[in-house]
Design a protein that fits this description.
By secondary structure, this protein is α+β, with helices and mostly antiparallel strands. The strands form 2 sheets. It has a 9-stranded antiparallel sheet, with helices on one face. β3 and β4 form a beta hairpin. The relative contact order is 0.18.
Length: about 230
């Protein structure tokens, strides 16, 4: 009898742990007050901090749904303008339900790292769907727009200010990848994400980020032992 009770308890605990793991893997689309740098939308993609060094930080993001589109062009700025207009039409009611969808942060752009300057690149832009549309978002009516679920992931992040341009994004991506290579970090090298948190009408105190997706376990050490800060966040 006691053995049956113990087995039942173990099954319950196993199921409960599994349920918690599912919950933690889901998107955390939360109030912008949770992030000091997310100030222009009511909802933002919230993350769990993993660790931080003087060169970068590591974050964990849960799986989330995004409305996305892609554009092929030689120059990121032209691709992003066309992609942004297409997605903006979706959130302002050009969808199967005719619903307006609140703008969120960040706007994410998948940037190809294997493109030569004379080659056209495929740039994929995504608007994060707000919490109320994460389960059942309105279907797009434009064939070039789709709903995509990004899996849970850990990312290496470098933050910078000013305007996000091809030049500034490439410089900061190169800086981050050099820092990662110097400590032997494993990450996806054929692309990175450019994350923007500001409206084009914001002139000052802009916040941009470069993300590289972690492969295996994140590397939280630094090549500079003198200014090393590799402790996990409190």
């Amino acid at each position: 009898m006691q053995g049956n009770q113990t087995a039942a308890m173990m099954m319950y605990l196993s199921g409960f742990v599994g349920f918690l793991l599912v919950l933690t893997a889901e998107a955390r689309v939360g109030n912008s007050s949770e992030l000091a740098f997310c100030t222009e939308t009511e909802q933002c993609l919230v993350f769990d901090p993993v660790c931080k060094t003087p060169q970068y930080e590591v974050r964990h993001y849960g799986s989330a749904k995004w409305v996305t589109t892609e554009e092929t062009h030689y120059i990121m700025e032209f691709a992003s303008m066309k992609a942004f207009r297409r997605l903006f039409k979706y959130i302002t009611g050009d969808n199967a339900d005719g619903k307006k969808v609140e703008m969120t942060s960040p706007v994410l752009m998948k940037m190809p790292d294997d493109k030569r300057f004379w080659q056209a690149g495929v740039y994929k832009m995504g608007f994060l769907l707000p919490a109320e549309h994460q389960k059942n978002p309105p279907n797009p009516t434009d064939e070039a727009v789709s709903i995509v679920t990004l899996p849970a992931m850990k990312v290496y992040v470098k933050t910078y200010g000013g305007w996000m341009t091809s030049f500034s994004d490439k410089n900061n991506a190169n800086s981050l990848s050099s820092a990662l290579d110097s400590v032997g970090a494993k990450y996806k090298k054929d692309f990175h994400y450019a994350a923007g948190y500001n409206s084009p009408m914001t002139w000052f105190n802009r916040h941009n980020e470069v993300w590289y997706v972690v492969e295996d376990e994140p590397e939280c050490s630094t090549s500079s032992e003198e200014d090393m800060d590799m402790s996990p966040f409190a």
